[in-house]
Amino acid sequence: MRSFPFQLVNVFAESHFGGNPLAVFPDAEGLGDDTMQAIARQFNLSETVFLSPAREAAARLRIFTPSYELPFAGHPTLGSAAVLHRLGRAGDDFVLATQAGPIPLTHRDGLFTLQANAATVRPSGLGLTDTAEMLGLSAADIVAAPEWVNTGTEQLLVRIASREAVLAARPDPLLFMQRATLHPGRSIAYLWHEENNVATVRLFFEQHGAVIEDPGTGSACANLGGWCALNGRRSLTWRVEQGHAIDRLNVLALSVDAAGTVSVGGRIIFVGSGVFELPDS
């Protein structure tokens, strides 16, 4: 048998059972694509991340959901950073290599922070009524037509008129897969409302015909920061709260500096470790 150690961590966690769970394989060299996908399906978490050596970075990341690989995701990147830091393989300022490019990271007083790529944005073609129907809301709850935003992983961003409306959203699965689809098998939308520097957010995605809610989403938080930067909302620091509706609070730190550079951070709690065994190939 071949043995591969893994760590279980909760990312964006303010308490031991908060945050977004993640499995990190710090020594994944030798695992093939199909095997990594199968392991991610076995764990059945939002993402499982596999680390291998990289010349230009502390490690190279491969990030898998139970169904497909992602070029970038925030909570796997930050969780990997915490595992590497704990193992003594990364200091307080380092870079991780993702398929979306190199991601700079810092560690300060227990907070791990990533610097996101510059954002691109494109229209969705959806109107207020179309969007509201898809989300189980009224047209008055939608501030503006949603847009596709990308700082590494493209997602549909929907600005909502109130915190109450964000929490009241109940997506219609059929309409969601018709209107929030990036490509077949990838339907995703991020709802957000900000007031007094606190943003309330939810992320929904399609999995096997059902609409699932993610507890905490760093890539979407980065996309929100990218949207802010592109729309002149800079020199900001927000507390981003996610997971209320599924009783799994996540707290993310979002900042956009005067130059438009986006940073996303959070705290990571270690909750377990183990060894995954595979038959000899």
CATH architecture of the largest domain: Roll
Distance between the termini: 9 Å
| Count of folded domains | 2
* CATH domain class of the largest domain: Alpha Beta
Roughly what is the average pLDDT, rounded to an integer? 97
CATH superfamily of the largest domain: Diaminopimelate Epimerase, Chain A, domain 1
Topology pattern, helix = H, strand = E: EEHEEEHEEEEHEEHHEEEEHEEE
Strand content: 35-45%
Number of helices: 6
Q: Please tell me what the overall shape is.
A: globular
CATH topology of the largest domain: Diaminopimelate Epimerase, Chain A, domain 1
Q: Biggest sheet: strands, sense, closure?
A: 8 strands, mixed, barrel
Which strand order do you get reading across the main beta sheet?
1-2-3-4-6-7-8-18
Radius of gyration over C-alpha positions, nearest whole angstrom: 18 Å
Q: Unreliable stretches, pLDDT < 50, 5 or more residues? A: none
The number of distinct β-strands equals 18
Which structural class best describes the helix and strand composition? alpha+beta
Helix-residue proportion: 10-25%
